[in-house]
Amino acid sequence: MNSSHFKRSQLKHLCSIIGCLPGEIEYITDNLDDYYKEWVENKVDKTSGDFKKYKDGTIKQRTIRPSLNRLKVIQSSIKNKILSTIPLPENIHGGVKGKNNITNAKVHQGNKYQFTTDLQNFYPSINCKQVYKMFLSLEYSNHFAHWLTKLTTWKNELPQGTPTSTHIANLVFLESDYLLIPFCENHNITYTRYVDDLTFSSQKDFKLFLPELLQIINNGGFKLNYRKTKYQGDQTVTGIEVFNNYIDGPEKIKDKVKVERESDSNNKPYTNYLNRIRRTNKTGKHNY
Question: What is the DSSP string of 1-44?
């Protein structure tokens, strides 16, 4: 089978998995600009609820690029039929069924020393070449990886707001995860990642090992935002207050719960969210 025939067969194979026609894929990938929209929004701090700012006071922003119409449907199928079937380490909590920011924080409960950081511009920092390389590493053919990359990237980056981007970002960062995980295990450090939020904790002071941890991340081509550098005491992990014997919602969530309690509405999302957090605690009652 020559190269062109193999390329065609690989496209047909992909289409058979995700439920579409080769001509449809070719048309969409030739006209990608018609299948995305784009806007800019201000970044919000998960702890305070205020806008994130640079040192000069400028508000930090992110570009949202959700997919549209048939491409969004196809990406959802790629997520469900391909990406979601790829196993991830238990350390990963973002974009994983049955896990969330609560399960991510719970793991660190009781650890005296904690360090949190996040990855700068995580989605747009991942380019087409990295996505293509990731699919090749999963032992897909070059043509299969080509079509998957074309269908999940735009403007030479991973767009934020599509069904596939979180899963792909997880898979691209796996190379760094597989270096961080054994390093942390060898030094009794608990490590979790919730999309672009990285948390490290331990019963012992591990400040000595931070340069090596951060170097692993930098070597993977990722940049860090030093949001918090706190090695001792309780702190917020992915929007959850983590204490020695329990976890709880932050004050901004508790304030919204108080408002909901005084409301006649049956729709109380903040109350439900706080209850979900507190159900993970075996003992202890906490006031609203």
Answer: --HHHHHHHHHHHHHHHHT--HHHHHHHHHTGGGGB--EEEE-B
Distance CA 51, CA 60 (A): 7
Chain mean position to CA 28: 26
Strands 190-194 and 39-42: unpaired
DSSP label at 202? E
Amino acid at 57: G
Cα separation, 288 vs 254, in Å, equals 6
180-192 burial, b if ≥16 CB within 10 A, otherwise e?
bbeebeebebbbb
Per-residue pLDDT of the chain in tens (288 residues, 90 and over written 9): 557 788 788 889 999 999 999 999 999 999 999 999 999 888 776 656 677 776 677 777 788 999 999 999 999 999 999 999 999 999 999 989 899 999 999 999 888 888 888 888 899 999 999 999 999 999 999 999 999 999 999 999 999 999 999 999 999 999 999 999 999 999 999 999 999 999 999 999 998 999 899 999 999 989 887 655 555 555 678 787 787 777 788 788 888 888 878 787 878 888 888 888 888 887 544 444
